[in-house]
Amino acid sequence: MTVQREQAAQQERYDVVVVGGGAAGLSGALTPARARRSVLVIDAGRPRNAPAAHVHGYLAREGTPPAQLLAEGRAEVTGYGGEIVTGSVVTAERMDAGGFRVVLEDGAAVEADRLLVTTGLVDELPEVPGVAERWGREVLHCPYCHGWEVRDRPIGVLATGPLAVHQALLWRQWSTNVTLFLHTWAGVGEEEYEQLAARDIAVVDGRVTGLEITGDRLTGVTLADSRSAGCEALVVAPLFTARGGLLAGLGLEPTEQERDGHVIGSYIAADPTGATAVPGVWVAGNVANLTEQVIGAAGAGVRAAAAINADLVAEDTRRAVAHRAVAHSRTWEDTPMTKDAKSGAELKSGAELWDARYAESDRIWSGNPNAALVRETTGLKPGRALDLGCGEGADAIWLAQQGWRVTATDISGIALGRAAGHAAEAGVADRIDWQRHDLGESFPAGEFDLVSAQFLHSWGEMPREKILRTAAAAVAPGGVLLIVGHAGYPSWEHNHPADVAFPTPDEVLEALELPEGQWEVLVSEEHERIQTRPEDGQPGTRTDNTLKVRRTG
Predict the structure, then answer these.
(1) What pTM value is reported for the model?
(2) Which residue, 21, 123, 193, 451, is the most exposed by fewest CB within 10 angstroms?
C-alpha cells in the first residue's frame, strides 16, 4: 500500500473501513472519525471526475478543482484521526468471528467491523474516435455540471439510447443551438419528433464516425457519409457501470437499471441509508445512485456513516449490557460460569466454558502482548517457546515476531481459530504451532527455552499447581519459566468470596517443587497496574505478581 500519511495502516482492525476516497468516501470517513471511531480509507486514486476542471453545484465550493476538494477533504479526515492509504481493494470477505477482511491488490489486508463502499462507477463511453480523449472537456453528460460553461454555444447530442431526446430537451435550456445526432438510435417516436421540432432542436441522421478538432478545441463531428456538422460541445449517454466487483465475495452483485427496456447502467442496491442486503455493509455515492452529483454523494456518505455509527453504538451497547450482566453475576475467581450466555445450555467442560466466553464477543482481549511478558523476555535469545493459555494469540504472535518458534496452546477452539487468523495477518503463521489442550489432562510434548504462563486462571476446576509443575518440567536446561498471575481482586470489586485466595510469588515458587540446585530465581515480585473498570470505563488498579526462574541443571 502506498501511504497518504506518514505511515501505512496503523492497526489490523478498524471500526470502519471505507473503500473509495471521493466525496462520498471522505464524507463517510469524516463523520465516524468525528464520532471517535477508528477509520481507514482505502483509495485507488482514480476519481471519476478527474477529467473535469471544476466542481459545480456544490454550495460554497462552486468552481473548486476536484483535486483541491479531495486534498482538503483528506486533510479534514486525517485531522480527526482517520487514516488514508492508496491501494486497490480486490475483495471483501466475511470472517467467521465477525466483521470483514478487506484484501488489497498487493496482498495486504485489514479487518473492519463495518464496511462502507464508495467506489463510484465507470463511464463506458460510446465507441466514437476522439470521444474518450475529450471526455470531461467538450464531451459531456450532465448539464448541471457543465451546462453553464457551454451556454449559448452549439451543442450536439449523440443518440445511443432512450435518453437521447430527454437529453436534447434538457440541454436546450442552456442553448438555443442544439442538434440531436441520431447515430445508432432508431427509437425516436412521432411524439418525440414533435417535441424536438417545437423546441427548435435540429435532428441529423447518420452515424457519427469522429470528432473535428481545431486548435485543441472541438468544432464539430464527422458523419459516416463524410458530412460534417458543427458543435462546440457533444453530449453523450455513457453506460454507468458500478465499481462493485469487490463485493462479489459477500454475495452482492450489481443490479441493472433500465429505461424503456434499455439498460443504462448498474448499481448496488441499498436502502435510503445505504445499508445493503449484507449486514454490516453500506454503499454511498455513484456506486449506489447513478445520477448522484458531488454534493449528493457527499451527503450520501454522511448519511451512511451516521447509520454505521448508530449500528456500532447498538452493538457496543448490547455487548456492554451482556458484560455488565456477567460482571455483576460472577467473576472468574468465584462463581463458575455454568450456562451458555446465549442459549442457556448447561456447560459441562472447561472447553465449553471458554468457548462460550469467546463466543460472547468478536474480540475478548486487547490484541496486545502482556506487558510483563514483553518486559521479562526482551533480551532473551530467541529459541523454542511454549505459551500456555494463549487465548487470541497476542503473546504468541509477539514472540514469533521477535524470532521465537512458538507452540501455543489453549482449551478453546474458538480462541485458537482467531489466534491463527491473527498470526496469518501478522505474517508469522509459519512460526507458530497452535495446539488445543485441556492442560489438566494433556500437555504439549518437547522441551522449550521459554515457557510462559500468563494469567493462567479459569472458571471451574483447574489443577493449576499440577499444570505449572508440568510446565517447569518442560523447560530445557538454560531455559526460563515465566509465570504471571493476579495477586488480588481489582480495586473496584469489594464483595469477595472468603474462600478465594491468590498465591504470592513465594507460594507459587513453593508449589512448583523445583529440585534444589537446578534452578535460580530471577524475578519474584508484585506490581500494580492500571486496569479499566468494565462498568464505566474509568481507570482502576490491580495488583499482579511475576515469578521468573531459570533452569540451570
Answers:
(1) 0.60
(2) 193
